[in-house]
Amino acid sequence: MNKGLVLLSGVGVGAALMYVFDPDRGRRRRALIGDKVEHAKNKAGDLAGKLSRDLRNRAQGLAAETAAILTEDNNVADDVLVERVRAAMGRVPVDHGAIKVTANNGIVTLGGQALASELPALMAAIREVGGVKDVVSELKVHGETSDVPALQGALRQVAG
Q1: Residue 107: how many other CB atoms lie within 10 Å
Q2: Which residue among 8, 10, 59, 119 sits deepest, i.e. has the most Cβ atoms within 10 Å of its Cβ?
Q3: Are residues 139 and 110 in the same domain?
Q4: In this structure, is residue 159 part of a structural domain?
Q5: Is the dihedral of CA 113, 119, 125, 130 positive or negative?
Q6: Could you tell me which residues come within 8 angstroms of residue 76 by beta carbon, excluding any fewer than 6 positions away?
Q7: d(CA 37, CA 27)
Q8: Distance of CA 153 to the CA centre of its chain
Q9: CA 143 to CA 122: how far, in whole Å?
Q10: 8-state DSSP, 143
Q11: Per residue in 42-92, pLDDT tens?
Q12: Which stretch of 10-14, 35-39, 149-153 has the lowest confidence by average pLDDT?
């Protein structure tokens, strides 16, 4: 090994020991070092706690999703199904006021006015709703809003 490196290491260790065991300020410095070690230990414990809670919550969520898939409830009340579909429609940029939703034994019927460009996203969102067996579209589909008063002036949700 290089003698210069050994000498430099020895000087560094000696300086560190002098810094910590200084008769005037050594006690304060040792206390500060102890406080920093305690702080780091507490932060590590907090982080471990957060991590374990996150993993536990994710595992519970995964178990709940799996149970929901395995015990899929196909007998959802019609009024509940309509509200679920309306909630799903709220996440799709469509003119909600121009679409009427009804349900009968898991079969969702859509009526009213809609734009052709909105249909694929709307139908996909509705088919994902739990309890929907089929979707029947009785919508009057239009290419643009200029010829349909029900679709003009409506605020559209921006897809994000």
Answers
A1: 14
A2: 119
A3: yes
A4: no
A5: positive
A6: 84, 106, 130, 131
A7: 15
A8: 32
A9: 15
A10: S
A11: 999 999 999 999 999 999 999 998 887 777 666 788 999 999 999 999 998
A12: 149-153
- Whether 85 and 146 map to the same domain: the answer is yes
Is beta strand 107-115 parallel, antiparallel or unpaired with respect to 99-104?
A: antiparallel
Instruction: Tell me the three state secondary structure of residue 44.
Output: helix
Tell me which residue has tokens 């006021």. Answer: 97
| H-helix or E-strand spanning residue 108 | strand 107-115
What distance in Å separates the CA atoms of residue 60 and residue 160, rounded to the nearest whole number? 28
What does the alpha-carbon distance between residue 16 and residue 28 come to, in Å, rounded to a whole number? 15
What range does the domain containing 127 cover?
78-151
pTM over the 0.70 mark: no
Residue whose entry in the numeric block shows the structure tokens 């009213």: 112
Residue 92 near residue 143, CB atoms below 8 Å: no
Q: How many CA atoms lie within 13 A of 154 on its CB side?
A: 21
Residues 89 and 123 reside in one and the same domain: yes
Which of 68, 90, 125 corresponds to the end of one domain? 68
Please report whether residue 18 resides in a domain: yes
Is there a single domain that holds both residue 46 and residue 89? Answer: no
Q: Which residue has the tokens 């509940």?
A: 80
* φ/ψ (deg, to 5) at 143: -80, -35
28, 44, 68 - which closes a domain = 68
Domain count for the chain:
2
